[in-house]
Design goal:
The complex is a heterodimer of chains A (480) and B (452). Chain A has 480 residues and is an alpha+beta fold. Chain A folds into two domains: 2-236, PmbA/TldD superfamily (PmbA/TldD fold, 2-Layer Sandwich), CATH 3.30.2290.10; 243-476, no CATH class. Chain A has helices at residues 2-12, 20-30, 88-98, 133-150, 213-216, 218-236, 257-264, 269-273, 334-339, 373-378, 429-434; strands at residues 37-53, 56-74, 77-83, 114-115, 154-172, 176-195, 198-208, 243-250, 294-297, 318-323, 326-327, 348-349, 358-359, 363-366, 382-394, 400-412, 415-420, 424-428, 436-439, 444-445, 450-454, 457-465, 468-476. In chain A, helix 2 (20-30) packs parallel to helix 3 and helix 4 (133-150) runs parallel beside helix 6. The longest helix of chain A is centred in the middle third of the chain and has 19 residues, at 218-236. Chain A is globular and about 70 Å long. The mean pLDDT of chain A is 95. Chain B starts with 11 loop residues before the first helix and ends with a strand. Mean pLDDT of chain B is 95; it is low at 1-8. Classes of the chains: A alpha+beta (480), B alpha+beta (452).
Chain lengths: 480, 452
């Protein structure tokens, strides 16, 4: 940890000729009489992406962003300012702006800072430099050729390779001194297939916190190409989807977006502190079927949603949200934990220095059950088997959530038969979770493409689940 | 609250010459590096937003952003880079990064700047810059008044997710190696309120907002708070409805989504990628024949107004749809070249688009409809732009005998956009003019409504 901390300090502080003494003084300014908590969040981020379209690598872009977010908290009040200029004078004026929420008072002593010790769960290096430009371009071209070779009905192929590297350092009046270096890579393949005048799109993507070698690996990259083509071809044959309430079996992995929407958001600390979530004040109650145990775990090695420590310097952990159907925990950042008299669960996250942190998910998934997936499908007389989804959304107050199938099949008499078109599933989180009647033994995490939006802030997240059977949920097809 | 808003002293109009000079310097740097053409966009924003909740100040946020985006062309190859850091060394490195990328990208015959004669000769004053001389305390007082009006509106309003006031200034420069440098200043201010009503059947939230370039055109805090309250209470005790085929009426805030799906389908990017359900639709009838869709980029004080697009091409009035027929695609310089057409001045999107057609007052619209679903909120991303297949979660009201009967939640509405656009029977006269896509209520003859 300490060499990482030193390297991040060198990157973020040295160019501006800032050292620990000055940062301590700024914290002192932030910590006057009426302020409970103050924090400086330094960040530097590099990002690069390459796009192949129409068989040529036609676009590449690079960006670099740096800045500092300054926060002062007094009771439930927060003052926040930021600057893209890392200099003492810019930091002073951001500090003054942030502390303007509280009346002037005596400066208090700031707790002595102690470096946060966190296990490294991804490599420190910048993935942008982990592969040469020639190799990146060649990789995109190989994936394009592989996708086109899959089937003559493939008309368009778009391949995108992205890599970014974030250095962050957080210091706070509670003595926190935390730093992290976070790589993130991703490859996306999107295809259009056409047959007899009908066109369809297929998509596959994946990545995580690793060097580019993870997505540049030929098995992985060509796997994405063939998966994108396969899903497009399935949809080319799809029939209109049924409409109304029915049994739905969800496949393993990415369909775990169910948990993200149906329970995850509703269990974020801020909504529960304010009493605006359908799950507020329900700790200890049965909110899901006893077969369900749902966790959020930011400490899994190399996953897209993972963090060694969160953006407030709290070490990531596994948090059990629902155990055997009983609600047992919320996701907390420092502010909401303090106001609810509990501890942060390491879920304080922000899109960048220019945004305030809030309680957010990391990797959210359901633990495996005991059923064989085939046994689950065999138990359904008539229903839907949904294996791939676009995205979802939730109204945390009413509990209503949706998520949209992009690859689904009919189940007839215990067998998966014909593909049906994409359709939206809708239900109330607390209701749908109690209707989960079978849980598979095939827990899988997603491939690493999730982006979660909340209050205008986007962050990378992961989801996962085993095969699940929901006895009744509304399917928004056209065939009534 | 002893400190004055440190951003209120910043007037972006004073700093505009600096931003323009920076753009000119970057273009010069690009030419030095041997680029055959270059374009640069730069932006600067400052603002303040204040949130209150349950009668107390919750957050005061000061924002101050700068950004530079650079695209270099070496013949038909291009590279792009961007940064938020305006220090000379970082800008030089960013230009270098764009040049480096252009060494590895491949030649694309359609790459390049738009023709110089397409750039505006002079910029019309669109009256977009109206700084609001308010500070955090005054903004807090307005937000408190707004939330209080909402909380007091009805005893069933039991909780609040807060009221917010925001004040923003922005400065935008676009320049390219043809010698064109365009600049405009704008402001955008707003107020919003989110309230939670509760009865024996649970909680419901809804919101309302006002936004304007000129702060004197904002709705009053009381009007915003009351409307948020009215909407939240109206949603209490929702019922289920039967699954079947019914008329669906979209409120103005939701019907703008239909227009934006349509605009996506006739935009160059979807068309040249073969990713649209409206391929080769220019000149074809795709909507009911009473409908037209008009773009007016030069309306004073409007949210979508702009004198040039993100290629530097002058914007102009036009129709995308006339009498239900596609009159123009939505094209940038690049996508136009891909399709063998001329740019429509829509790089980066559309500018003040209004849907027009057979209008009826809302009450008459309900009578004409008879029964069905009035949609006030949509959820999820269930729209397939390639096929037009449409399936989304909906909240709203059931219509019976030509009147709103009771609130509905937990239903989906599904159809195909091609059918829906041709089945738009009437429009309301209740235009929502706050956004870039300006629509009234829209009545679609029939969709599948699913419920449990």
């Amino acid at each position: 940890m300490s060499d990482l901390l030193e390297e991040v300090q060198r990157n973020l502080w040295a160019p501006a000729e800032i050292d620990e003494r000055e940062v301590e003084k700024l914290l002192g300014r932030l910590s006057n009489g009426a302020i409970d908590f103050g924090e400086l969040f330094f960040q530097h981020q590099r990002a690069e992406s390459w796009t192949l379209e129409d068989e040529i690598v036609r676009e590449g872009s690079f960006s670099v962003d740096r800045g500092v977010g300054v926060r002062a908290v007094s009771g439930e009040k927060t003052g926040f300012a930021y600057t893209e200029e890392i200099s003492l004078s810019a930091l002073m004026s951001a500090t003054e702006a942030a502390r303007s929420i509280a009346r002037q008072g005596q400066n208090r002593r700031v707790a002595a800072s102690h470096p946060v010790q966190a296990e490294r769960i991804y490599p420190m290096g910048d993935p942008i430099d982990s592969l040469s430009e020639e190799a990146k371009v060649a990789l995109l071209q190989r994936v394009d050729r592989a996708a086109r070779a899959e089937d003559p009905r493939v008309k368009e192929v778009t391949v995108r390779l992205s890599a970014s590297h974030e250095s962050m350092l957080v210091v706070a009046t509670d003595g926190t001194l935390g730093a992290d270096m976070r790589p993130l890579v991703r490859m996306d393949v999107s295809v259009i297939v056409e047959h007899n005048g009908r066109r369809e799109r297929g998509f596959a993507g994946g990545g995580g916190r690793s060097p580019l070698s993870r997505v540049a690996d030929d098995d992985f990259a060509m796997g994405l190409a063939s998966e994108a083509v396969r899903t497009a071809l399935v949809n080319l044959e799809a029939e209109p989807s049924p409409a109304g309430a029915m049994t739905v079996v969800l496949g393993p992995g990415w369909p775990g977006v169910l948990l993200h929407e149906a329970v995850g958001h509703g269990l974020e600390g801020d909504f529960n502190r304010k009493g605006t979530s359908a799950f507020a004040n329900r700790i200890g109650e049965q909110v899901a079927s006893p077969l369900c145990t749902v966790v959020d775990d930011g400490s899994i090695h190399g996953r897209r949603g993972s963090l060694s420590l969160d953006d407030e310097g709290t070490v990531s952990q596994e948090t059990v949200l629902i155990e055997n159907g009983i609600l047992c925990g919320y996701l907390q950042d420092k502010l909401n934990a303090r106001l609810m008299n509990t501890q942060s669960t390491g879920n304080g996250r922000r899109q960048s220095y220019a945004y305030l942190p809030m309680p957010r998910m990391t990797n959210t998934f359901m633990r495996a059950g005991k059923h064989d997936p085939e046994e689950i499908i065999a138990s359904v007389k008539k229903g839907i088997y949904a294996v791939n989804f676009g995205g979802g959304q939730v109204d945390i107050t009413s509990g209503q959530f949706v998520f949209s199938m992009t690859e689904a099949y009919l189940i007839e008499n215990g067998r998966v038969t014909r593909p049906v078109k994409g359709a939206t599933l809708i239900g109330s989180g607390p209701e749908v979770m109690t209707r989960i009647s079978m849980v598979g033994n095939d827990l899988k995490l997603d491939e690493g493409v999730g982006v979660c939006g909340k209050d205008g802030q986007s962050i990378p997240v992961g989801v996962g689940q085993p095969t699940l059977k929901i006895d009744e949920v509304t399917v928004g097809g056209t065939q009534a | 609250m002893a400190k004055e808003n440190p951003n209120s002293s910043i007037d972006l109009s004073e700093r505009a010459p600096l931003l323009k000079k920076l753009v000119a310097d970057i273009l010069e740097e690009a030419v030095k590096l041997g680029a055959s053409a270059a374009e640069v966009s730069a932006s600067e924003d400052v603002g303040l937003s204040v949130t209150v909740r349950k009668g107390e100040l919750e957050t005061v946020e000061f924002n101050q952003d700068r950004g530079f985006g650079i695209t270099l062309y070496f013949g038909q190859r291009k590279g792009s880079a961007s940064t938020s850091d305006s220090s000379p060394e970082v800008i030089a490195r960013t230009v270098q990064a764009a040049a480096n990328i252009a060494r590895y990208t491949q030649e694309d015959a359609c790459n390049g700047l738009a023709k110089p004669e397409l750039m505006p000769e002079a910029l019309v004053d669109l009256d977009l810059y109206h700084p609001w001389n308010t500070d955090a305390q005054a903004a807090e007082a307005l937000a408190l008044a707004c939330e209080a009006a909402g909380l007091n509106h009805d005893s069933r309003i039991k909780n609040s997710d807060g009221a917010q006031v925001s004040v923003q200034q922005s400065s935008r420069v676009y320049g390219n190696s043809h010698g064109f440098i365009g600049h405009y200043l704008s402001t955008r201010h707003g107020m919003s309120c989110v309230l939670i009503a509760e009865d024996d059947n649970g909680m419901q939230r809804d919101h309302w907002y006002t936004t304007a370039r000129d702060p004197s055109l904002l709705e009053t805090p009381e009007a915003v708070g009351k409307e948020a309250g009215r909407r939240s209470v109206a949603r209490l005790s929702p019922r289920k409805v039967p699954t079947g085929h019914f008329p669906v009426l979209f409120c103005p805030q939701m019907s703008s989504g239909l227009v934006s799906h349509f605009l996506g389908a006739i935009s160059g990017g979807s068309l040249y990628r073969n990713a649209s359900f409206l391929m080769d639709s220019l000149g074809s009838s795709v909507m009911s024949d009473h409908l037209s869709l008009e773009e007016e980029p030069h309306l004073p004080k409007q949210i979508g107004s702009a004198g040039f697009d993100s290629d530097g091409v002058a914007t102009r009035d036009k129709a995308f749809v006339t009498g239900g027929i596609v009159a123009s695609y939505v094209l940038s310089n690049y996508s136009a070249r891909r399709l063998g057409l001329e740019t429509t001045g829509n790089a980066g999107g559309v500018f003040n688009v209004t849907l027009k057609g057979n209008e009826k007052p809302f009450a008459e619209l309900l009578k004409t409809m008879g029964g069905g679903l009035y949609v006030t909120e949509l959820m999820g991303q269930g729209v397939n732009g390639v096929t037009g297949d449409y399936s989304r979660g909906a909240t709203g009201f059931w219509v019976e005998n030509g009147e709103l009967a009771y609130p509905v939640e937990g239903v989906t509405i599904a159809s195909n956009l091609k059918d829906m656009l041709l089945d738009i029977q009437y429009l309301g006269d209740d235009f929502d003019l706050r956004g870039n896509i300006r629509t009234p209520s829209v009545l679609v003859g029939e969709m599948t409504v699913a419920s449990n």
